[in-house]
Design a protein that fits this description.
521 residues; alpha+beta; 3-stranded antiparallel beta sheet; 24 strands
């Protein structure tokens, strides 16, 4: 006869303390509820079963421990939000403690290149600074101190910031995915940002941004390939799984293709992507490349979880989208892409966004080197039409006419874009990657308070950008991924590349559930 006695308990969660080690409060466990019962499969075989619910029971340091009445008990199952533990029957009714190791293993880089080492250290610092926690223990990633009123999280900033946080503590990225999934509408449309508080204030400008949905898919894909944790795809947020949410995102973008050429179109004079201060309607190269990347990511994820029919559909659609991007937006006379096309008219303007087409393998291989060569016109050291001397890589040339040049999003230098540019050059060994990767940092450190770090953007005349900007970690992440080859495929494999700057030593990187160190020469 099966006997069961259920008792509700008070509860305690404590971190595992390692003396002299740096600790992270965002790894602290939170317990929301406990019940225990005595289960007797037979008359002479009884056990106390503890079901402990809460948050942050798992992290990259390993599994949790449970202590009851100064005795360690057996943990038979553990997830981030639930623990099942077994104990002797007399422990029923006693208070369990959950212990996790909250040691922060801060990644470090050693090299004779002092600029890259300093950039790496600052990027780790900023990535840690932008991690917040709600009262239930859930972690979230902000864009930086300038973007916290109201307290909110951005899809695009989250993606580029996650590259560094995956190296530090992937569990934080998992929480961010679950938070961002909440903001995706039933029809798959995705805002620019959502408030951390579900009841918090939203802004009309945030609605239905064309880059946000692809960035969400890309973030899930990166999380899976860096951790091997496919359980995120089955997590429910509202009435949908994460995988179903991603499918809805792509379905929504497909409906934005009004001229039936497979490329979603933004409305006329739209501000609905990262460049939310400049009106850009029609088929915008930046958004189309991200759409293609999201389709490729979904192809691999669907294959990974055995949805072969879905994978085939995504694969075939992605090939057609890539063809249409190059057929519609490539300007062969100029050797680069049009920025956008709308109603049969195309905008001839160079943008640093175009390097995405190289990084994500949209450009045909025979045009790759030509495109990167032409993007050098964005570098102030080469383009004499750019004013104020040699100070960086502008995001656009010629300037937009709708806003003032060398201010905010118009002919300024954005580090997150520089990371894409440098990453594309490192990935294929084409041209000088070091200038786009580092020049913004050098310029900023000459012209700013030495205490400040990682600007939102730099300009010789506009110094109003934010600092400690989260997505400005992307340049050094690109060095790790594309310069050194620490960039796992969906099956977890990667190949360390020869260092482009001589001896480089990286320590305490989280990759596929292990804390690794790498030496590259």
């Amino acid at each position: 006869m099966l006997k069961r006695l259920i008792i509700f308990l008070f509860f305690v969660a404590v971190p595992f303390v390692t003396s002299a080690a740096e600790e992270a409060e965002f790894l602290s466990p939170k317990i929301s509820g406990v019940n225990s019962s005595v289960v007797c499969p037979t008359e002479d075989n009884c056990q106390a079963v503890f079901l402990i619910k809460g948050k942050n029971f798992l992290n990259s340091n390993g599994r949790p421990l449970v202590n009851i009445a100064d005795e360690w008990v057996e943990v038979v199952r553990a997830s981030d939000t639930q623990i099942v533990a077994l104990a002797e029957p007399e422990f029923v009714g006693k208070v369990p403690m959950v212990i996790v190791d909250k040691t922060l293993h801060r990644p470090t880089m050693s090299s004779t290149d002092g600029v890259l080492v300093k950039m790496f250290d600052e990027s780790v610092d900023v990535a840690l600074e932008v991690i917040g926690q709600t009262s239930d223990g859930s972690r979230y990633i902000t864009a930086g101190p300038r973007y916290t009123e109201p307290l909110r999280v951005y899809y695009r900033d989250s993606y580029w910031t996650s590259g560094m946080i995956l190296l530090i503590e992937p569990a934080v990225v998992r929480d961010q995915i679950l938070l961002l999934a909440r903001g995706i509408e039933k029809d798959g449309s995705t805002p620019s940002a959502i408030p951390v508080d579900p009841k918090g204030m939203t802004m009309p400008l945030w609605k239905d941004h064309y880059d946000s949905g692809p960035y969400f898919i890309m973030m899930v894909y990166d999380y899976v390939r860096w951790t091997g944790d496919t359980s995120i795809l089955d997590e429910h947020v509202g009435e949908r799984t994460i995988l179903a949410t991603m499918e809805d995102v792509l379905s929504h973008l497909e409906t934005r293709d009004t001229n039936k050429n497979l490329l979603p179109e933004k409305p006329a004079n739209s501000f609905q992507d990262w460049l939310d201060n400049v009106p850009r309607g029609g088929e915008v190269l930046y958004d189309e490349v991200l759409y293609y990347r999201a389709l490729r990511n979904m192809t691999e994820l669907a294959e990974l979880v055995g949805k072969t029919a879905h994978a085939t559909v995504f694969h075939r659609h992605s090939l057609l989208v890539r063809y249409q991007i190059n057929n519609t937006l490539w300007n062969d006379a100029r050797g680069y892409y049009y920025e956008r096309c709308e109603n049969g008219k195309c905008e001839d303007r160079l943008t640093n966004e175009m390097s995405l087409a190289v990084l994500y393998d949209v450009v045909w291989p025979e045009n790759r080197e030509r495109l990167l060569k032409n993007l050098e016109q964005l570098e102030t050291r080469y383009n004499s039409s750019l004013l104020y001397g040699d100070w960086g890589v502008v995001n656009v040339f010629p300037a937009y006419t709708s806003t003032k040049a060398y201010f905010y999003q118009n002919m300024t230098d954005w580090p997150f874009l520089d990371g894409i540019n440098a990453g594309a050059r490192l990935k294929y060994g084409i041209g000088d990657w070091y200038y786009p990767m580092t020049n913004w940092w050098k310029f900023f450190n000459v012209h700013s308070d030495k205490i400040e770090k990682l600007p939102e953007y730099v300009s010789p005349i506009d110094f109003s950008g934010g600092v400690s900007q989260a997505w400005s970690v992307n340049p050094i992440v690109s060095f790790v991924r594309y310069g050194l080859g620490i960039d796992p495929a969906i099956d977890g494999t990667y190949t360390i590349r020869p260092s482009p700057i001589g001896q480089v030593d990286l320590k305490n990187l989280s990759v596929r559930g292990q804390r690794i160190s790498v030496s590259a020469k």
